[in-house]
What we know:
Blueprint: E1 13-18, E2 21-26, H1 27-31, E3 35-41, H2 47-59, H3 61-66, E4 71-76, H4 80-90, E5 97-100, H5 105-110, E6 113-115, E7 123-125, E8 128-133, E9 136-142, H6 153-158
Parallel strand pairs: 3-4, 4-5
Antiparallel strand pairs: 1-2, 3-8, 6-7, 8-9
Amino acid sequence: xxxxxxxxxxxxxxxxxxxxxxxxxxxxxxxxxxxxxxxxxxxxxxxxxxxxxxxxxxxxxxxxxxxxxxxxxxxxxxxxxxxxxxxxxxxxxxxxxxxxxxxxxxxxxxxxxxxxxxxxxxxxxxxxxxxxxxxxxxxxxxxxxxxxxxxxxxxxxxxx
Length: 160
């Protein structure tokens, strides 16, 4: 079942690339007592994700934080090394936290997966954004397949 507004973010372990190498990030700790803007992309380095989705959140990071967001998080069903490299290449450091959902377990727990096997990509996260306060989803914006409208940084800012 797909997560809904008012639901608690599920417990999961994501991975973050650090200077010391890959480190686990527990969602319970990530969301506890904080306001987090999270967005998911189907794949690092893919066209819409690299040209629009991630850059929009990087560009609007200060505006989101000025409106009370403690952390901006990008997740994708990619490995931690790819997410780390993509974040560096895009200039996300200090603005957007890049987290890998390597096996898609978090996307699956949210009920927000898509089947991209016909593109050779397997199961991936759907494109979406959400806002969570103390681990409770307060806004949820799920894109229609192939679309990029409601999951943008601009759209989420309008909900704050």
